[in-house]
């Protein structure tokens, strides 16, 4: 199969860049979401931060704060791999329709994952479906890159 040069002016690169930016923005939005949760619960991880709130206390075990932090950590464990393997995937000359839909699926799944995990927690399998939808996209792109390399 092999690799080809990325058409940086093409529709596929534009779509990938758009979705990569959306999921990177999503990771960045987790910072104020975590801060909001900390201030709402008056629970902080450091004494100097707790002093900023009249009822502030130091705790590393608040379940609501930890839920948002775990969602953020999950983003950090998945989104960089999407951006990296997506870049290589663009060099495999993929089908425009399939690639665009995979980028869309990943983005929607990651936003849904955060929504059902940290914003409005829903019971499983909502989070699992969102997680594995995005995970499947990374696996398919990774296998495509491996196949193109050999």
From TrEMBL:
Annotated EC: 2.5.1.18
Pfam families in UniProt: MAPEG (PF01124)
Catalytic activity, reaction form: RX + glutathione = an S-substituted glutathione + a halide anion + H(+)
Top-level taxon of origin: Eukaryota
Organism per entry: Notodromas monacha
Membrane topology: Multi-pass membrane protein
GO molecular function: glutathione transferase activity
Name under which the protein is recorded: Microsomal glutathione S-transferase 1
UniProt function note: Conjugation of reduced glutathione to a wide number of exogenous and endogenous hydrophobic electrophiles.
Keywords: Acetylation, Endoplasmic reticulum, Membrane, Mitochondrion, Mitochondrion outer membrane, Transferase, Transmembrane, Transmembrane helix
Quaternary data: Homotrimer; The trimer binds only one molecule of glutathione.
Family: Belongs to the MAPEG family.
Membrane-crossing segments per the record: 12-35, 79-98, 129-149
A cellular component annotation (GO) from this entry: endoplasmic reticulum membrane
Residues of the signal peptide: none
Family matches, as InterPro entries: MAPEG-like_dom_sf, Membr-assoc_MAPEG, MGST1-like
Protein location: Endoplasmic reticulum membrane; Mitochondrion outer membrane
């Amino acid at each position: 199969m092999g690799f080809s040069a990325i058409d940086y002016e093409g529709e596929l690169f534009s779509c990938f860049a758009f979705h990569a930016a959306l999921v990177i923005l999503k990771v960045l939005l987790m910072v104020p979401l975590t801060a909001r949760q900390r201030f709402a619960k008056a629970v902080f991880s450091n004494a100097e931060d707790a002093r900023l709130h009249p009822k502030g206390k130091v705790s590393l075990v608040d379940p609501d704060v930890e839920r948002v932090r775990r969602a953020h950590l999950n983003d950090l464990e998945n989104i960089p791999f999407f951006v990296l393997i997506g870049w290589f995937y663009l060099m495999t000359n993929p089908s425009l329709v399939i690639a665009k839909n995979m980028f869309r699926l990943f983005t929607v799944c990651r936003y849904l994952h955060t929504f059902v995990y940290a914003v409005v927690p829903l019971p499983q399998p909502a989070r699992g479906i969102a997680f594995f939808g995005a995970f499947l996209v990374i696996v398919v792109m990774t296998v495509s890159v491996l196949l193109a390399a050999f």
